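Run folding on both entries below.
>entry_1
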Amino acid sequence: MAHTIKGKKQLLTRVRRIRGQAEAIERALDEERDCLAILQQIAAVRGAVNGLMTEVLEGHIREHLGDHASSAAQRSEDTEAVVAALRSYLK
């Protein structure tokens, strides 16, 4: 997976941020904080995980699936269409 190796530092930074957010949820639950605050933290984690998924999927599509079209122009167009659909779905 060359795309994850190239972006390893950035991906690990995202994962560490997600870990910190999950730990904040755990602390909030332990401290019996307000439900609204906990829900906001959960939503932030979900957004961060979706962002990580989008980045990894986009790299995978561009690097691995883009090679199956007949021409470079068609391959690029097809890849961009799939990436746009995934970005829309994962928002």
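>entry_2
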Amino acid sequence: MSDPRMLALSPSGAVSERDSSALPSVATSDGRLSLLAASVGFLFAFRAVLVLISARWLNVGTEPGVIAGVLAEMLLMFMAVMQASGAKVQPLRWVLQLSSVRWVMAFLTFSCASLLWSATVSPAASALYWSTMAADVAIVLVLLRVGTAVELAHSMMKGYIVAGVILAAIAWIMPLESDQRLGDLDYFNTNQIGNLCAMGVFMAQLLSARKDGRWSVAQVFLMLTLLRSLSKSTLAAFLVSQGVIFFRDKSITLGKKALLTIVVVAVFLAFSGIIASYFNTYTTTGNQAETLTGRTGIWIYCLTEGIDKPWFGNGIDSLWKVAPPFGPELFEARHAENELLQQFFTYGLAGIAMLAGVYGSFYRSIRSLPRSATRAVLGALLLYILIRGLAEAEPFDLLLPLWSITIISAYVGLHARVDSTRASAGIAQCQEAGI
């Protein structure tokens, strides 16, 4: 028999080698590492600190940090294209048939078109940031032409986790913000730190669920950094989503659950002094960006301006330096501080439809998996994004980045087809094929 990793599904659901062009090579998690994919995952996380390095550490301004990130991605894209130009490439037809990926493409297309009517103060800068977001997705698609979805997804997660651990260490040694939280308010703030740590934990949990490596130490360090960051919305979303895993994952024994509960309580008690001090500052001197009442003002403005242009919104990057400063601190909002409002303000009702389409199709792809630890972690990840979206947003991308939706959708879609193959062709035949 030919290479079992080149198996595909025929229309009837049986295992077939004739349709290998419709479905890429399938591999279980055997610990293989794509250095290029790992480097891409590393960059996607580590670039969050590049502006801080150039502006604070090197004192050369913010532009070199932005340029460094763009150049690094261009280099990785060039390397991926060179790999994909060889003879052993796989068609992307199967990826583009995934509903989540189609919605990603629709979002990219519409957001690019909105540059035509956007009120942005710098169309060139906005176009550059859009190009970076699109390049993130493009590099994932190019990589899928030369590697298996499983190997690429795992490798990108590993690179992201390594970068997350490095960034967490940097956060601990940086000077604290005025409210004693981790980070730099201007260039690498506490919400960025918290989200990087949370996403790293979810990726480590996915790898652990697939029996690919040991990530306990990394998870503990990232969780402690997330707690110390005191990013309120991120912490709340993370605790709720992890609680869902805790109570619904049948693989966690009752004794382990009891031990984990004791550890969590002990950690919160150890940090109780810092938490109490921060909330005292938050309730007495919190600024426009920090307090609920401050964010309410931003929400009202975005809702009002969105209603004025309800169908297609104000266009990409139309809030930063365009909206009037908020509050006595003259805070300049980068985004709407709410993902639903952000999409409505930026793209109108079309933005809400795209947001529902992207997350809805992603949810359906997760539901296509059989009940397992992988499905539980992915479901918790989406719940984390939805809860965090109540008080956070991104100025260009979604809170669940488009590149991550693309690679995870390919990963999930491939495994769903393999699981369907197992059910229809029989366990014995799949074992013989090496799936």
